[in-house]
Write a structure and sequence with these properties.
Blueprint lengths: L7 H16 L4 H13 L1 H21 L3 H10 L4 H16 L12 H10 L2 E2 L6 E4 L5 E4 L4 E4 L7 E7 L1 E5 L4 E5 L2 E14 L4 E14 L4 E5 L2 E5 L8 E2 L3 H4 L4 E8 H8 L6 E4 L7 E7 L3 H11 L2 E7 L2 E6 L5
Parallel strand pairs: 5-7, 14-17
Antiparallel strand pairs: 1-4, 2-3, 3-6, 4-5, 6-8, 7-8, 8-9, 9-10, 9-11, 11-12, 13-15, 16-17
Pfam families: DUF4880 (PF16220), FecR (PF04773)
Protein name: Transmembrane sensor
Keywords: Membrane, Transmembrane, Transmembrane helix
């Protein structure tokens, strides 16, 4: 079977069948028709398997029993058109790599074990702070992990394994990432792992970047940059959001709605999709990261959008329907 993403219309059909069969309203004739649809083409079977996998991932992440999801589906059984619209958006997100199924690597299990055993870690939607043995302060953003020991040597080693950290140093320290090391010079700074780069934002003091291939650059306070194992981007002004998250705030200063929602999605289980019709709306203000439903409600109150939840764990942001 091909591992390409199914056609958006196939995904939409698969999701409609999934919602109907799990709703408790499916008749024996509906089941027969679903089996006929499934057998028509390999792409139908691929689409069905993907929708099933999405639902299983959501249930595993949230601890929901399938019966709870079934009850939610029954409450939404009269919203078939809404389900179809959502899954078309979901298909677009899949096509853009938003769910990342194709990104699974053979070393994923080893990486997860390192994250699970890390002394400093957070779950999805959690922001935590620690006081380190040398008097420094460490904050971790959602779904993040840092490995580190109370070393007796002159420099305390920390390793960012996943996500984002904010460090206020209390003594000599080194932060290692897959792309290289950071050597703060009496400072307060943020480090975030992205798929191909590491982002560092310096709020106080200075930070020296040493890439895996030996390139070096000192970043002063008020500047941020991205680097890989072989290159360092030119520094630019620090974004407010790079420090605001440790106070539980998502800061938006004239950014696209789609970009804000992509960030908000990191703090909630399930999948958050935005219609292209409203993706480019500009957003200003501060939104709570500890209550993402409230953040969505705030956006809905000030923008011409509506937020719907057609299926468990799936949220759709689309243009507001005109008033009748």
């Amino acid at each position: 079977m091909s591992h390409a993403t199914p056609d958006p219309e196939v995904l939409s059909q698969a999701a409609d069948w999934f919602a109907l069969l799990r709703s408790g309203d499916a008749s024996s004739e509906d089941t027969r028709r679903w089996r006929h649809w499934l057998a028509q083409h390999p792409a139908h079977r691929q689409g069905w398997a993907l929708v099933e996998r999405i639902q299983q991932q959501f249930e595993a992440a949230t601890g929901d029993h399938p019966a709870q999801a079934d009850a939610t589906l029954r409450r939404a059984r009269d919203n078939r058109l809404r389900r179809r619209s959502l899954l078309k958006g979901l298909a677009l997100m899949l096509g853009a790599g938003g769910l990342g199924w194709a990104g699974w690597r053979t070393d994923a299990v080893q990486q997860r074990l390192a994250v699970w055993s890390a002394p400093y870690r957070t779950g999805v939607g959690e922001i935590r702070a620690w006081t380190l043995a040398d008097g420094g302060r460490l904050w971790l953003n959602t779904d993040s992990a840092v490995d580190g020991v109370d070393a007796d040597g002159p420099v305390r080693p920390l390793r960012l394994l996943r996500g984002e950290m904010l460090l206020e140093t209390g003594g000599p320290v080194r932060v290692d990432t897959p792309a290289g090391s950071l050597r703060p010079l009496g400072t307060r700074f943020t480090v975030r792992l992205d798929e191909h780069h590491t982002l560092v934002a310096v709020h106080e003091g200075r930070v020296e970047i040493v890439t895996a291939e030996g390139r070096r650059r000192v970043i002063p306070a008020g500047r941020q940059t991205r680097f890989s194992d072989h290159a360092i981007d030119p520094p630019r002004p620090v974004e407010t959001a790079r420090e605001a998250w440790h106070r539980g705030v998502l800061a938006a200063d004239d950014i696209r709605l789609a970009d804000l929602l992509a960030e908000l999605a990191r703090y909630r289980h399930g999948y958050l999709n935005v219609s292209p019709a409203v993706a480019d709306l500009r957003v200003f203000g501060g939104f709570p990261l500890t209550d993402t439903d409230q953040a969505l409600a705030m956006l809905e109150a000030v923008l011409p959008i509506q937020v719907t939840h057609p299926l468990p764990g799936w949220t759709e942001v689309r243009p507001r329907a005109p008033e009748k």
